[in-house]
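ARCHIVE RECORD
Type: protein–small molecule complex
Small molecule: MRU
Source of inputs: curated submission
Record status: active
Notes field left blank by submitter.
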Amino acid sequence: MAFESKIKTIEWIGNISRIIDQTLLPYEFKTVDIKTCDEMYSAIKDMLVRGAPAIGIAGVHGMVLAALELGEKIKDKKLFLEELNKKAQYLKSSRPTAVNLMWGVDKQMELAKNINGSIEEIIKNLKANGIKLENEDIEINKRMGDYGASIVPKGAAILTHCNAGALATVGYGTALGVIRSAYAKDPTIKVFADETRPRQQGARLTTWELTQDGIPTTLITDGMCSYFMSKGMIDMVVVGADRIAANGDTANKIGTYTVAIAAKYHNVPFYIAAPLSTIDISIKSGNEIPIEERSHEEVTHINGDWICAKEVNIINPGFDVTPHELITGIITEKGILKPDFKESIKNAFQN
Ligand code: MRU
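STRUCTURE (tokenized, with ligand):
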């Protein structure tokens, strides 16, 4: 059974993409209408829209916006496709780690190249495909939710890191989708949400999202997870992913690797919940995943205020890679993949 979430993070309406501005949460709920490809590039880069599947659909919508703009100026189809391809590369350069962005943009580019008809036909098809992929994202999350809920023990305390919720997808969520589906079956489950420094997606977004749905949630700081595991207070970990290599190594928000090590030490099952569009079978291992370097200000400041000596050195990778050996299973829309991940991932793509 699915537990409905009212949050729609990104939605195509007429000729615009409407997104929730996540930089304002939890203080203010505001949507923004994205009308051009440039605006979509900035919305992804500045993280108004964030989370791997959500930026995948943002890329899909960005391509429709690009096609609409180019269609106004260019009448030659070959030139139109060349210019659209430049926009595709531009959109893909907005953030490097989440492969869903590349997946969404490439899907639209492939479709555009394969349409035999006019530029108008291409635009019509890109729009229709955008709406289809948007709707599919929610369906896929609900399917993952059902698979995931089947392995959540009764009354479990589930730890999650960052925000892999409705806000990180079109709706419902991946890791939080599993939690929503589990809660629908068993309202005695509870959630521990890591704060997730430096940008605090756990504190700002996950607690906002889960408490909206009345799901019992306790906020902890990132360093507390092993303490609660050692006390037997965490039964399982479920997190999302930004890119999974063919061997199961998984990039997710910085700090996920630490949680996975703590979970292994304390024998707490550690699950990833992610759609197949997050799996990059073109790369053999996590070593090949590009890690986004983010602004130093995310570390030196909280809510605009300095929190450290101004002379200190800063380094701020946005993601880390959890080695596949630390992962109990990967919850996908095709079922729960188990080690050996090389085999189970290959099979998931074949069936
Ligand atoms: O930098 P962000 O906020 O885009 O990072 C998001 C995450 O790391 C999520 O955990 C991941 O994208 C999974 S979303 C379903």
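CURATOR ANNOTATION: The chain has a mean pLDDT of 97.
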